[in-house]
Amino acid sequence: MNILQKSAMLCVAFASTALAPPSAISFARGPARPEAVRKPAEFRRVLVGRITVIALSDGSVTVPMGTLLSIGPDRTAAALPRREEAAGYPLPVNAYLVLAGGKLVLVDAGCGTFCGPTAGRLVESLRSAGYRPEQIDEVYLTHLHVDHVGGLTREGRAVFPNAVVRTDAVEAEWWSNAANSAQTPEAAKGTFDAAKAMLEPYIAAGRFRPFAKGEPLVEGIRALAEPGHTPGHSGYVVGRGRQKLVIWGDLVHAVEVQLDDPKITIAFDSAPAQAAATRQGELRDLASTGALVAAAHVPFPGIGRVGRHGSTFAWKARR
Ligand SMILES: [Zn+2]
C-alpha cells in the first residue's frame, strides 16, 4: 500500500466516524443525543522542573483499530484488553499547553469539527484550565493530520488569532506541495484540503512559520524528529536532563498493543518501516532515561512513562 492509499484510509476512517450517528459510536454512553455523548472539558497540570504543562482533552474518536493495525482484526482483538474494541476503538485525542520561555505554547490543535460530536472540545478544555484562545502565543504541530490541525480554524477564521503556527518544514512542504495532492486519489484529497484550509488564515497573516531541523524554538522546548507516521512528523521535548517530558504526537496509536510490539504499524503511517524504527528507538531511549511522556492518543491525560516488559515495553500511566 502506498502513501496515497494510506491517506485515503485516513480520510475514510475520519469521515466514517464523523458521519456515524451518535448511537453507533461505542464510546457513547447514555442517551444517544450528540450533546449527551460529549464528555465535559478536561485538563490536568503537570510540572516538568519549573515548566508547567497542561494536558487538554479534545475528546475521542472511534476508529476500526482492527482493520487499521498491520496485524489485522483477529490479532488486534486478542491483544486488546477489550476484544470488541478491535471494531470500535475509542481513540483519545489530547493536546498540551506548555508554559515555557514566557510564552503559552499549544502543541496540536485537536479535531475541530472533523471527527464528529465526541471530539473538538479543545477550546472548552483550554477555557476550563483558565486560558483563552487569544492568549496562545505559538502553536506547534506534530503533523498535519486532521485530528491535530482541525481545531486551528473555524469558519475561515483563526481560532488562535494571535498565535504563530509552526511545524517541521518537511511536513509543511509535503502537505502544501500541489504535486503530492494531484497524485492523490479524489477520496484522499480531503487531508490535503483540510490542512490547507486550517493553515490558510495563519499563512495569510504571515503567522505560519515552518522550522528547519535544529532551529531554536521557545526556550525550554525543542523539536524531536519522529519521521515515518508522516514525512515531517515531530515530537517536542519540554525541559532537559532529568526534568524532561517528551510530547509524542502519533508515535503510538494503540498503547495496549504497540508497546508490546513496536513493529506493529497503523494504516495512517506514510512510511511504516520508518515509523516502526522511530518508535522502537524512542521507546528504548525513554525506557532507559525514565523521562515523562505526553501522548496524543493515550487515554487522558496521556501522561506516563515507558517501562521495560521483558524484551519489549509497557506503558506506566502517571496517576
Ligand atoms: Zn493523530
Structure description:
The strands form 3 sheets. Strands 1-2-3-4-5-8 form a 6-stranded mixed sheet, covered by helices on one side. Strands 9-10-11-12-13-14 form a 6-stranded mixed sheet. The model is unreliable at 1-9 and 15-36 (pLDDT under 50). The protein is built from 11 helices and 14 strands. It has a single domain, classed as Metallo-beta-lactamase, Chain A (4-Layer Sandwich), CATH 3.60.15. It has helices at 3-19, 34-37, 65-68, 72-79, 122-128, 146-149, 169-176, 178-182, 189-204, 255-258, 272-289; strands at residues 43-48, 51-63, 89-100, 103-107, 138-140, 153-154, 157-158, 164-166, 221-225, 234-240, 243-247, 292-294, 303-309, 312-317. With 319 residues, it is an alpha+beta fold. The protein starts with a helix and ends with a strand. Zinc ion (ZN) binds at residues 145, 147-148, 250, 296-297.
Walk me through the topology.
Blueprint: H1 3-19, H2 34-37, E1 43-48, E2 51-63, H3 65-68, H4 72-79, E3 89-100, E4 103-107, H5 122-128, E5 138-140, H6 146-149, E6 153-154, E7 157-158, E8 164-166, H7 169-176, H8 178-182, H9 189-204, E9 221-225, E10 234-240, E11 243-247, H10 255-258, H11 272-289, E12 292-294, E13 303-309, E14 312-317
This protein binds zinc ion (ZN).
Zinc ion binds at residues 145, 147-148, 250, 296-297.
